[in-house]
Amino acid sequence: xxTVDRKRLASLMEKEVRRFDTEHPRxxxxxxRSKGSLLAGVPMPWMTEWAGPFPVFLAEAGGARFTDVDGRxxxxxxxxxxxxxTGHAPERAVAAVxxxxxxxxxxxxxxxxxxxxxxxxxxxxxxxxxxxxxxxTDANRFAIRLARAISGRLKILVFNWxxxxxxxxxxxxxxxxxxxxxxxNVGPPVDPALxxxxxxxxxxxxxxxxxxxxDVACVLAEPALTNIGIVLPEPGFHEQLRTLTxxxxxxxxxxxxxHHLCRARWSDARVGP
Length: 273
Known about the structure:
The protein folds into two domains: 6-86, Aspartate Aminotransferase, domain 1 (Alpha-Beta Complex); 133-266, Aspartate Aminotransferase, domain 2. The longest helix is centred in the N-terminal third of the chain and has 18 residues, at 6-23. The chain has a five-stranded mixed beta sheet, sandwiched between helices. The protein has a three-stranded antiparallel beta sheet with strand order 1-2-3, with no helix packed on it. Strands 5-6 form a two-stranded antiparallel sheet. It is of the alpha/beta class. The radius of gyration is 22 Å and the shape is globular. The chain has helices at 6-23, 25-34, 83-86, 91-103, 112-125, 136-151, 204-211, 237-247; strands at residues 58-62, 65-68, 73-75, 155-159, 172-175, 178-181, 196-199, 216-221, 251-254, 265-266.
């Protein structure tokens, strides 16, 4: 067995951190400044999860590239939710946003454009009714509440190490086969075991056992797990998932489907026997 030279690895890591610091002085300065007004120095908590001592601060982005405040250009392999589909700042989208902004963007009333979008979504995906929200987390919350209201059941089911935003019920995990709090679950309102069942992705027998309790309002699932690398479904897994949810009167909510385009999409599950 090959022996890991930990001292050498630590030395190489230290060298790379120093190089990162030297090459990103403006990002470093902005990060220090941001600590005075932003919690942990970033606008959103997941932005703290960087390999270096501070995140790179963005100057501008276009297509599949972005430039940081130190003038360094990158090919963006992360892209983000909308950028992953269209690239950053697509010209037609920028023009449409600017046009609408000039007409007002904070009205609490519907527009004809909303009808067109609903009709187009129904045409593309074959599902008749749509509503819109401002965050992916809210889309999941709305879907869960509807599933509970319709089914009369209180629990949901998620897969271990899933990612569904900041929905409290989903921030739970399995440790040695037992359900518990997931690291980073700050201030949960209740023990997630009271609201959630958790099974391993691709584990059909465990899924069937969990649904057999007949107390799960919906399964909230990613088509492929994305929070621990990309974990693809085994052949036939989604077909078995669909069969089991139907058999147990449980709704199936697919999250990250087409990466937010039809987030929290409802299936045609039947509730009841």
